[in-house]
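Students often ask why inverse folding is considered easier than folding. One informal answer: many sequences map to the same fold, so there is more than one right answer. In these notes we will look at a single instance of the problem. The structure comes first.
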């Protein structure tokens, strides 16, 4: 399996490509960051090196491209033949966000999520994470924001995700502010604590889904190991260090987590925390028995949140028609 040059240090690029001087590795890296991935097109390299390295540096390739109004989803084949998906979201103006995968499949097995049905195949390498970003930028627009909300639990592949983030943030590489990078977790407490220790202004989102331990246990296995009380402790500690608002992703499941008592439990969970609840009506996944709430249910629950003074927003589906919405990613092509 050929290793991606993305996210490599200059010394590693030198060694991998058998370059003699550091400045040559810098030329390669500058080109890669600009999306020039064929060595033959890196005109600042010597003719000898260009001829010697007559291949494309990308280790992954796009095998399917699907597009809806504001979303583009790419299926990407990795060098070992496995397939992942990533998404570019647009706000309809000039802001583009890359939604990246961190693993092939996912071990967490959340009952409402398509990726969870795959099980974990393997972790992605830092370079494989960056290559998704590069494929999405090759679509033609500069991407300013990154969210780790694709396939996988990013905090379960902590080292690779952090290496990728450092490379995305590095002013000599992709130059994306930490503040524009969000990690979304299912509530993997040791990972949240590790992130807190790093003291970086990265944003954190938690796929909460319900603030009721029994209900969460039933649909999110992670809660049986790290129940809501431990999750809350970790989030408050993260917030104490980073002083940043946390997003609580609340995937709305019809008649499951949208009652008045659910809103009240959410209020209690959020006390002492600066958080925004992001209501996400569930995106249908073939073969699953959950249902999306109708407009009346969404309205009634959001009115209840308003009554309880809970900050919330409603995320309208982007990319649902191409299965590029939250919880819908899985490599069916595989
Ligand atoms: S919701 Fe996230 S953590 Fe849960 S199975 Fe899906 S990808 Fe994994």
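Output (designed amino acids):
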């Amino acid at each position: 399996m050929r290793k991606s040059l993305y996210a490599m240090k200059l010394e590693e690029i030198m060694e991998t490509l058998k370059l003699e001087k550091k400045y040559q590795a810098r030329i390669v890296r500058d080109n890669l960051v600009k999306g020039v991935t064929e060595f033959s097109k890196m005109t600042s390299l010597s003719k000898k090196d260009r001829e010697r390295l007559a291949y494309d540096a990308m280790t992954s390739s796009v095998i399917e491209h699907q597009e809806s109004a504001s979303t583009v989803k790419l299926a990407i084949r990795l060098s070992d033949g496995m397939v992942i998906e990533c998404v570019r979201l647009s706000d309809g103006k000039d802001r583009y966000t890359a939604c990246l995968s961190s693993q092939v499949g996912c071990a967490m097995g959340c009952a409402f999520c398509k990726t969870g049905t795959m099980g974990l195949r393997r972790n992605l390498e830092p370079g494989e994470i960056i290559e998704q970003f590069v494929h999405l930028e090759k679509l033609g627009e500069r991407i300013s924001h990154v969210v780790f909300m694709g396939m996988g639990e990013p905090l379960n592949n902590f080292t690779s995700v952090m290496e990728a983030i450092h490379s995305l943030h590095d002013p000599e590489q992709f130059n994306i502010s930490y503040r524009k990078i969000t990690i979304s977790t299912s509530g993997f407490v040791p990972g949240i604590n590790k992130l807190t220790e790093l003291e970086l202004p990265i944003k954190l989102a938690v796929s909460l889904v319900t603030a009721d331990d029994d209900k969460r246990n039933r649909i999110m296995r992670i809660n049986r190991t790290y129940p809501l009380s431990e999750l809350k402790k970790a989030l408050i500690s993260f917030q104490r260090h980073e002083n940043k608002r946390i997003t609580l992703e609340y995937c709305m499941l019809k008649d499951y987590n949208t009652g008045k008592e659910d809103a009240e439990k959410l209020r209690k969970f959020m006390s002492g925390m600066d958080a925004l609840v992001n209501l996400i009506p569930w995106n249908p996944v073939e073969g699953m028995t959950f249902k999306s709430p109708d407009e009346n249910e969404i309205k009634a629950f959001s009115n209840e949140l308003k009554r309880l003074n809970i900050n919330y927003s409603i995320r309208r589906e982007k990319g649902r028609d191409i299965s590029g919405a939250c919880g819908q990613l899985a490599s069916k092509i595989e």
